[in-house]
Every structure is written in C-alpha cells, then in structure tokens.
Amino acid sequence: MQEKETIRSRLKHAWNAFTTGQANSQVDRYTNYGPANYSRPDKTRLSMGNERSIVNSVYSRISTDVAAISIQHVRTDPNGRFIEPMTSGLNDCLTLDANMDQTGRSFIKDIVLSMFDEGQVAIVPTDTTYNPAFSNSYDIQKLRAGKILEWYPAHIKVQVYNEKTAKKEDITVPKSMVAIIENPFYSVMNEPNSTLQRLIRKLNLIDAVDEQSGSGKLDLIIQLPYVIKTAARKEQAEIRRKDIEEQLSGSKYGIAYTDGTERITQLNRPTENNLMGQITYLTSMLYGQLGITEAIFNGSAGEQEMLTYFSRTIEPIISAIVDEMKRKFLTKTARSQNQSIVYFRDPFKLVPVSQLADIADKFTRNEILSSNEFRGIIGFKPSSDPKADELKNKNINSPTTPTTDGNPETPLLPSGTTT
Questions:
Q1: Which of the pair, 55 or 116, is modelled with greater confidence?
Q2: Alpha helices for 291-381 (secondary structure H)
Q3: Same structural domain for residues 168 and 112?
Q4: Is 229 a domain residue?
Q5: Which one of 61, 256, 359, 400 has the fewest beta carbons within 10 angstroms of its own beta carbon?
Q6: What is the C-alpha end-to-end distance of the chain, expressed in Å?
Q7: What is d(CA 397, CA 399) in angstroms, rounded to the nearest whole number?
Q8: Is 13 helix (H, G, I), strand (E, B) or coil?
Q9: Which H/E stretch holds residue 141?
C-alpha cells in the first residue's frame, strides 16, 4: 500500500516542461513575459574597429585568463592572512551568481572586455539589502558592469542593463557606491595615438583595400581608334563603353568582343603597399608592451613564459579590480573587522602530471598542505583516514609507538647513549 501511495504521489506532483506548457497553453497565451529579443541584450559588444581579428583575440585571451582567477570576499587574521571565505551576497556575486544572466566568472570577463573597449568601466551594485543613500551597512545582492557616459564631481552617469525591462538604461549614481576601474594599460590600448589604436587604423585600411579589390570591378581602359575631343566623339565613346558593359554583364561567362583597332588595358592588378609590414611591426610592438607573446595565443608557451605573462599582464588588471572593489564595497568598519577582497590563482594549473608526485611530497613533508588538501587539488575525494587531515610529516615516526598490549613502547635511542 505504501508503494502504491508513493507512485501515486509521484505521478500527481510530477512536472514536465513540455507537457505542462501544453496543458497551460491558455494561461501562457495571456502571460506578459516582457519584451523579447532575438539576440542577448545584455551581451557586451565591442565598439567599431575593436572587433578586428588581432584586437579581438587579444581582448578575449586576456579577459578569459583574468576571469579564471578566483576573487573572494574573505576574512583575514590581523596579519592579513586568509582564514575563511565570508558568507555574504558579495561573495556569491564574485564566485557564483553575479546577476540573473551572468555567473561570477562571466561577470569578471565582462568587466575586463568593457574596460579594454572603453578605457574604464563601472561595477554597479543593482540590488542591495538597504538603500546605499541612507546606510553604508548593506550587502550587495547583484552586480552589473556599466559604461560610463558622463563624469560629475561626486557622481557619474552610467549605462547599465536593467534585467526587469531587458534594456540598457542611463542612471546617475554616486562615485562612492560604484567601483570605477581604469585600464592599467590605458596609454597602450586606449590613447588616441597608442599602439593599439594605430594598429586598428591600419587594419581598417587593409580591410578597405581588400573590399575594393574584391568588389567585382574590372577596372578597364578602352583605347578607341579615334581622338575623343568633340561632343559627338564623346557620345560615341560612351555608347561603346555601355555596349561592352552590357556584353560582359549579359554573358554567361563574362565574355565580350571588341574591334580589331581597339586596345583594352586592365588595371585591377594587385596593389603593392607596405601595410602588412606595418601591421606586423605594430603587432609585435603591442605584444611586447602588453607582456604577451605569440606562444601564449597558440598554447605552446612554457612555464617561465606563462609566469612572466601572469606577473606583467594579468596581475595589474586583477589587482586594479580587487583594490577598487575593496575600497568601495567594504566600509572602514568591515576592514577593521579583518574583512577583505582577495584573489587566488591556482599555482598547479601549469604543472605537468609527471611533477605532481614530487610537489605533493615536498608540500606534505614540509607541513604546508595535508594529504586531503592536496587530494582536493588534483581532483580526488578526501580520504576517510584521520591521518590524512593531519598537518605533519608522514616520513617521521612519532616519538612513541603503541605496542599490541596498548602500552607505549620506549622510543629507540641512538647507539652510545644512556637514559
């Protein structure tokens, strides 16, 4: 009887998205879901020119690597050392759920992309537990990246996506409640005559040349067997030109005939210029100024090369984000309570499997990590052995070893010594 009740209860309360939608079609027909879009309205779109191939690849590579670093709202000891993550809405925004549309990782990537594109970006708390205008003791529930439109002495006007209306709206907010992050490489990427902007202009020029050469024009010069000086001769030449155009456009294979006394010269031969050489030079200069190499993009960079990339390129960006959020989102009282916002980079991502055993031995032998902590790093579940949670060197025996009768055995002494 209990089994029948359980099956009946499961069938009664079961839900399927497709069958339930058909059953409630009369209700769904009159439900207002809000405005609809065929593309994602909150997605960051780069401004004109920044979507070019090399520029877009640089933006995507750096923003993805910055988003791979974990940012957390934590509690520290008086010396600033990490103790534990805080249970707060801000920490949830940074690690799991930034808003209705973005995870914490995609939100950080959105911040970096917007910062590269505009030169600066604003991190706007859209939902808080209390009104920031009347109280500083509030917890942040949702965060959005905003485009700064206007600057005032103590306020800024930002364009932020409103998830309730599915539109980007302009709002004016105090500078004290938003984190304003400026691109650390502003002089390299966003200045009007910077290396990146010069590269974008060169890419636009070469794209214009490619479009012109691939436009389908023949660029022909027809030399007629008579001098064109009078109006009648010009009209006759124009008739001849239109006749050849009609022959080429109306022919299946684009073939036309001319008189034996006429000569045709084709001009659409490849145009020689030094644009590609300038683009190659500017690209190598940009890589050097940003601290990146071609090997980083194709995945063949070595460990030392990646360490240089993280220290010269990624660290200034992630530090700018963390420092500004710590300054704006944590009050003096919170900082006096040893609250902080820090970032953590996994140091084992670049380590090959062949070296993990040696690293595990050094970390556990020097009492830096326990066995279970290192098992979690390599993706193994924790061991149930209590010794696996002990922070001690497993290669050193304990001072006393219990015997079979339960009494501790006297430790062995070196030869030549007496008790």
A1: 116
A2: 294-298, 303-309, 315-329, 332-336, 353-365, 371-377
A3: yes
A4: no
A5: 400
A6: 75
A7: 7
A8: helix
A9: strand 140-151
Strands 339-344, 263-266: pairing is: unpaired
Neighbours of 186 (CB within 10 A): 14
pLDDT in tens, 58-109: 899 999 999 999 999 999 988 888 899 999 999 999 999 999 999 999 999 9
Considering the domain boundaries, does residue 263 fall inside one? no
Res 3 pLDDT > 60: no
Please give the model's pTM, rounded to 2 decimal places. Answer: 0.74
Buried b (16+ CB within 10 A) or exposed e, 313-351: bbbebbebbbebbbebbbeeebeeeebbbebeeeeeeee
Task: Put the strands of the sheet holding 82-85 in their side by side order.
Answer: 82-85, 70-76, 339-344
How far apart (Å, rounded) are the C-alpha atoms in residues 197 and 83? Answer: 44
* Both structure tokens of 119: 């030169």
Structure tokens at 60: 């995507």
Residue 339 and residue 362 in one domain = no
Percent of the chain with pLDDT over 90: 33
Give me the helix-helix angle, 53-67 and 195-213, nearest 10°. Answer: 140
User: The domain containing residue 312 runs over which residues?
Assistant: 50-207+294-350
The yes-or-no verdict on residue 215 having pLDDT over 70 is no
The 3-state secondary structure of 227-249 reads CCCCHHHHHHHHHHHHHHHHHHH
